[in-house]
Design brief:
The chain has 369 residues and is an alpha+beta fold. It has one domain: Cytochrome-c3 Hydrogenase, chain B, CATH 1.10.645.10. Helices cover 48% and strands 13% of the residues. The chain has 15 helices and eight strands. It has helices at 51-55, 60-67, 75-90, 96-125, 129-149, 171-193, 197-203, 211-217, 222-226, 233-236, 257-280, 333-338, 341-345, 350-360, 364-368, and strands at 10-15, 27-33, 36-43, 158-159, 162-163, 300-308, 311-319, 327-331. A hairpin with a 2-residue loop joins strand 4 and strand 5 (162-163).
């Protein structure tokens, strides 16, 4: 980190943890030279609950709902990563029907997560209308989750070996209707924002993080793809049958905040493509693979990573042969991506810091755990 010496022209300023644009309880210590940012330090831990340690004192099944509370905006993705890791330990593969439904629910959750990002990011920049529009469509996703398993936010949809519930009558129609309704809405968001002069000027050339820096910091997800790197775990290391679905990986060119916006917008369109294919081909059969009533994996360890809305979400689970995990370690994309904030903010203005934090799409429940 570049040395900064406090003289009469320099100022150290706390941004957060109560500041609404820090997207939770993030405290950013800004080192300023007038309006220009010379450096940043992130202070985290205000939302720490010891989730990984709790896992050591719960059975594998009992711990599953805890992961939904980390990235509470993408709880379905959290649950998928965990059950895949335990299934890998057990050497169990879920049923084709369960795999297809997992894809559908996870892609709906990706859209819901991106919609909340879009609305709050636009609100940070000063545009309030997109928030109301995005929450309107997000509500349609949450209604499907609620009808399926009764939960809207901390959606606990999966079980080790398969699904929690069989599909309700009309599930396929609800998802198809959502797809038909949603694509014109994405066009509407873009009509509001993509050509908006203020939006373009606030985002273009701001918070540049090129491909080399992304790899150095371990940054994944839309931030990495906006830097032109075509890396998506759904394609690179397919899981839950993603290899059967046709979709594109959107990438950017300029690695700036505007590119990260366009990448996420296109990702929502690609999620709809996956949803249409998955709903049209949900196989018949059981929703649970054959797993023992008491989950007791053999001694060993497993790491499983999925492409969560914010990037690579990984679970490292160690078994000592008992009914409780010996160790669980989570690789949260929000925490890893936040490392790059200082690099992205150097030389920017204070107002740009708000845009850059928004474009990272962080959730502090996942960072602090």
């Amino acid at each position: 980190m570049e040395a900064t010496f406090l003289d009469s022209s320099e100022l150290v300023l706390n941004m957060g943890p109560q500041h609404p644009s820090t997207h939770g309880v993030l405290r950013v210590i800004l080192k300023l030279d007038g309006e220009k940012v010379r450096g940043t330090d992130c202070v985290i831990g205000y939302l720490h609950r010891g989730v990984e340690k709790i896992a050591e004192n719960r059975t594998y099944t009992m711990f599953a709902p805890y992961v939904d509370r980390m990235d509470y905006v993408a709880s379905v993705s959290n649950g998928l990563g965990y059950v895949l890791a335990v299934e890998k330990l057990l050497n169990v593969e879920t049923t084709p029907r369960a795999a297809a439904v997992r894809v559908i629910l996870t892609e709906l959750n990706r859209i819901a997560s991106h919609l909340l990002w879009l609305g709050t990011h636009a609100l940070d920049i000063g545009a309030i209308t997109p928030l109301f529009y995005a929450l309107r469509e997000r509500e349609a996703c949450l209604m499907i989750f609620e009808k399926y398993c009764g939960a809207r936010l901390t959606t606990h949809a999966f079980r080790i070996g398969g699904l929690q519930y069989e599909l309700y009558d009309g599930f396929e129609k609800d998802v198809t209707d959502f797809c038909d309704m949603f694509i014109p809405k994405v066009d509407e968001y873009e009509e509001l924002l993509t050509g908006n002069r203020i939006w373009v000027e606030r985002l273009t050339g701001v918070g540049i993080l090129n491909a080399e820096d992304c790899k150095a910091y371990g940054v994944t997800g839309p931030v990495l793809r906006a830097a032109g790197v075509k890396w998506d775990l759904r394609k690179a290391q397919p899981y839950s049958g993603y290899e059967k679905y046709e979709f594109d990986i959107p990438v950017g060119k300029n690695a700036d905040t505007f590119d990260r916006y366009t990448v996420r917008m296109e990702e929502m369109r690609q999620s709809v493509r996956i949803l249409r294919q998955a709903v049209a081909a949900i196989p018949e059969g059981p929703i649970m693979a054959k797993v023992p009533k008491v989950i007791k994996p053999p001694v060993g360890e497993a790491y499983t990573a999925i492409e969560a809305p914010k990037g690579e979400l990984g679970y490292f689970v160690v078994s000592d042969g008992s009914t409780q995990p010996y160790r669980v370690r989570v690789r949260p994309p929000s925490l890893i991506n936040l490392q790059a904030l200082d690099r992205m903010c150097r030389g920017a203005l204070i107002a740009d810091v708000v845009a850059i934090i928004g474009t990272l799409d962080i959730v502090l429940g996942e960072i602090d755990r």
